[in-house]
Design brief:
Length: 176
Amino acid sequence: MYTEVRLHPALEETLSTEGVIGDYAAVRAQHDGELVLVVASKRLTPLDVRRLLGDAGTATVPDAYAVVPALERDESGSLALGRVEELLAKRPLYRPCPPTTEVQRLLVEVWERSLGIEGIGIDDDFIELGGDSLAAVEILAETEKRVGTEVGVDEFFECGTVRELSARIEGKGGQR
């Protein structure tokens, strides 16, 4: 069961001014309090939405994201919560997974600085985040400097996520 809630004004402004998002709603799960941003779009992914919200510069961000084809509202504009529940039950929610090890924390920090994105999760794909070979070289140089373990560019692209890269680094004994 969900209830509709308001987002932080900065987030609402970002969603309203981007021009790529038609309709959206923020809902809170009654069983665990999770805040879910539901966006109506046929071309965006949850990662696209999170990237858009990264520019809002506020700590109040949703716990999870979902993209649905359309949101239903009644004549007064109220969200059809029963329909939202049905839509969310049919698709996985995107939840950024936070770092749990020191190497993961360091890598997330380096990736965020290099890619200019806040809130990167350890399972976010480097390419999907907008990473390219130039950013990869920058990340690898900073990682080697801070962790003391060299990782090749080919290895980096084989890994693709902070989780996989941290496992590779930790497997090489890297962690100062």
